[in-house]
Design a protein that fits this description.
Elements (H helix, E strand, L loop, with lengths): L4 E6 L3 H13 L2 E7 L8 E2 L2 E5 L4 H6 L3 E4 L8 H12 L3 E2 L2 E2 L4 E2 L4 E2 L4 E2 L4 E2 L4 E2 L4 E2 L4 E2 L4 E2 L4 E2 L4 E2 L4 E2 L4 E2 L4 E2 L4 E2 L4 E2 L4 E2 L8 E2 L2
Parallel strand pairs: 1-2, 1-5, 2-4, 5-6, 7-10, 8-11, 9-12, 10-13, 11-14, 12-15, 13-16, 14-17, 15-18, 16-19, 17-20, 18-21, 19-22, 20-23, 22-24
Antiparallel strand pairs: 3-4
């Protein structure tokens, strides 16, 4: 029988709920609690208690569980980056969680702290960085690159050889042309078709 690993989730909002569903489906973890703002301690998310606030992280790390950043990301990656970097600075163990309903090629790579949601596909030769969200039913095609701290949203498609820069967001049903470059800290809106390179810090509205 496989031993479950203890895991603590950092962030108790809507994205946390989706992550809980994925984590439960894996059968690989025991959720020991959630970290959120101090005023929410004692509340619960889908039956799991909010046990601590950010200032309690050093003590929690000392107990030896894995951690996953479960803060959402749309307009800015900064809250996720801050949480991830604080955990890294504390030498916390960072989980990489893949839904059993997802397909990740054995020829692809995933960074620490990344979550791959239900029915997402990561194809051969793709490289996904740390602290990324690959959301429900998205596609990261062959040889595509997703840099650290990105969110590829629901049903978005990053076609073969495309690249998305650090801290960027690719909205629901957005599609990139093959080999296309999206810069750092970009926000690509819902349903946008990316047919030419996108410089850093740009927003394309759907």
């Amino acid at each position: 029988m496989t031993t479950r690993q203890d895991i603590i989730l950092v962030g108790g909002g809507g994205h946390c709920r989706s992550c809980i569903d994925v984590i439960e489906a894996t059968g690989a973890y025991t959720i020991k609690g959630i970290v959120d703002v101090a005023e929410k301690v004692g509340q619960s998310v889908l039956g799991y208690p909010i046990v601590a606030a950010d200032d309690d992280l050093p003590a929690l790390v000392g107990e030896g569980p894995l951690f996953l950043v479960t803060i959402g990301q749309v307009k800015t990656p900064d809250p996720r980056i801050r949480a991830f970097e604080r955990l890294a600075a504390l030498s916390a163990g960072l989980a990489t969680v893949v839904s059993p309903l997802a397909r990740v090629s054995r020829h692809a790579t995933l960074g620490q702290g990344t979550v791959v949601m239900h029915h997402a596909v990561v194809n051969a030769g793709a490289r996904v960085g740390a602290n990324c969200i690959l959301n429900t039913s998205c596609l990261v095609e062959h040889d595509a690159v997703v840099a650290d701290h990105c969110h590829v949203s629901t049903a978005a498609v990053l076609n073969g050889g495309a690249r998305i820069g650090r801290g960027s967001f690719l909205g629901s049903n957005a599609v990139t042309r093959e080999g296309m470059d999206i810069g750092e800290r970009c926000v690509i809106g819902c349903g946008v078709r990316v047919l030419k390179p996108v410089p850093d810090n740009r927003t394309l509205k759907g």
